[in-house]
Amino acid sequence: MAIDCIKTMPSITTPQHHPKDQDQCKDDGKSFVFDAQVLRHQTNIPQQFVWPDHEKPNINAPELQVPLVDLGDFLSGNPVAAVEASRLVGEACKKHGFFLVVNHGVDKTLIAHAHNYVDTFFKLPLSEKQKAQRKIGESCGYASSFTGRFSSKLPWKETLSFRYTAEENSSKHIEEYFHNRMGEDFAEFGTVYQDYCEAMSTLSLGIMELLGMSLGVSREHFREFFNENDSIMRLNYYPPCQKPDLTLGTGPHCDPTSLTILHQDQVGGLQVFVDNEWRSINPNFDAFVVNIGDTFMALSNGIYRSCLHRAVVNSQTPRKSLAFFLCPKNDKMVTPPHELVDTCNPRIYPDFTWPMLLEFTQKHYRADMKTLEVFTNWLHQRSFT
């Protein structure tokens, strides 16, 4: 089941500020099928996956030094640790929005099981994976690249996305999703990811306390805002590619969501654009990579940044990652706390709900570094019509 979007949103033509080289959504009813078990062995990759020269990857990008935030003492209530952790988080979020967290309290066995089930799913025959096929305009389900949405600059990856809700009486939501879409054999699969998402939701609320402290608002403000979150879990699988210098696992983009908590395997491939160059964030199995998304950038009134990032692939080893995208409950209005708005710091972004931005990115605009800017301009234009 995809996250419900608003139904009254008017149709949108491609925004005026959309990059000129942005490829359009496909509407010809024909789409290339990305079968990783076949394509991973081909020396001549399809043209749809070849990226322009100015966007081709630098596989050996220098490492980005990101803060390592120890959550152990903070989560246990140590006030000195809380101050230090919030300082590190604040500095990172003003510069590029990325940091690592360790001693996070998430069970290592659960993380290992979650990675193992990524292999279980993506090694299935294509026809089996397509039981959970994602429909155009939805945010959840199985997707073999973006072949159904776009006709060029396709990412070299497969994904499986599903909704997590922290609302009461929804403790079996993910288990039911996999039972309904994939059958009884996936009961344990659903249980593992139900437990994993609950752990991610708990972790994200703790991080929201840090973000509130670092911004000078109450520790509880953002925690309460996201307490009943309606989030997205995504399993990413990047098969080997015989020409990794021509394609990308994920193209350059900023996450439109609020907060991303990513766990990488040991292969590596995540890159962030900082100080006008691409830099890598090396794998650390004991840590989660956390980054700010566009929705939280709006909640912070632009003080904190969502940053351009991408994923590269290699010719030898599959790469997999677990991404939890924290999102507000659908009826929550995204508006910054009053402490962050004054005459010297006026409002930058208008009020909106998360489903509005979600539908914008799923149906009308391919997420990039200008997503929030273009979405804001569209909202302003709509208010005058």
From TrEMBL:
The name this protein goes by in its record: Gibberellin 20-oxidase
Domain of life: Eukaryota
Record Pfam families: 2OG-FeII_Oxy, DIOX_N
Cofactor(s) recorded in Swiss-Prot or TrEMBL: L-ascorbate
Claim: Oxidoreductase is one of the keywords in the record: yes
GO MF terms held by the record: gibberellin 20-oxidase activity; metal ion binding
Residues in Fe2OG dioxygenase domain copies: 228-328
Catalytic activity: gibberellin A12 + 2 2-oxoglutarate + 3 O2 + H(+) = gibberellin A9 + 2 succinate + 3 CO2 + 2 H2O
InterPro entries reported for this sequence: DIOX_N, IPNS-like_FE2OG_OXY, IPNS-like_sf, Iron_ascorbate_oxido_reductase, Oxoglu/Fe-dep_dioxygenase_dom
Key words of the record: Iron, Metal-binding, Oxidoreductase
Pathway annotation: Plant hormone biosynthesis; gibberellin biosynthesis; Hormone biosynthesis
GO biological process, one term: gibberellin biosynthetic process
Family of this protein: Belongs to the iron/ascorbate-dependent oxidoreductase family. GA20OX subfamily.
Endpoints of the signal sequence: none
